[in-house]
């Protein structure tokens, strides 16, 4: 069940928390958190519920279950009361979730003032287009 272990570690690092931080929030020992993150032991159902609440994700997501794209599209569009999220957008989100460095870089880019952001966006788009052409 390394998927769960890896996912727990990833979620913790996304929050910039230490294992001790998570342990305190869940009122558990740091060694217990470590065992979950190394796959040495598995959390019980009650602990999965606490982890789910702590990280704001479903238990299905914690254990590595993924909904189909169509299920996810319906849910996202329902939650955001839109119909503008499509499979391409889901692919982009999925890619970013698999590449935390890229996700953080784009998040930092979004925080820049519009004028600076436009220059960087243009450069990034140009580079991506060139690489895509070169790879075809």
Distance between the termini: 37 Å
Helix content: over 70%
Structural class: mainly alpha
Beta-strand content estimate: under 5%
Q: Could you give the order of the helices and strands?
A: HHHHHHHHH
- Count of DSSP E strands? 0
> Major beta sheet, specifics?
none
Integer average pLDDT? 89
Poorly predicted regions are none
Question: What Rg, in angstroms, do the CA atoms define?
Answer: 19 Å
Morphology call: globular
What count of helical segments does DSSP give?
Answer: 9
Describe this structure in words.
- With 136 residues, the chain is mostly helical.
- It has 9 helices and no strands.
- Helix 2 crosses helix 3.
- The protein starts with a helix and ends with a helix.
- The model has no long low-confidence stretch (mean pLDDT 89).
- The longest helix has 22 residues, at 114-135.
- It is 75% helix and 0% strand.
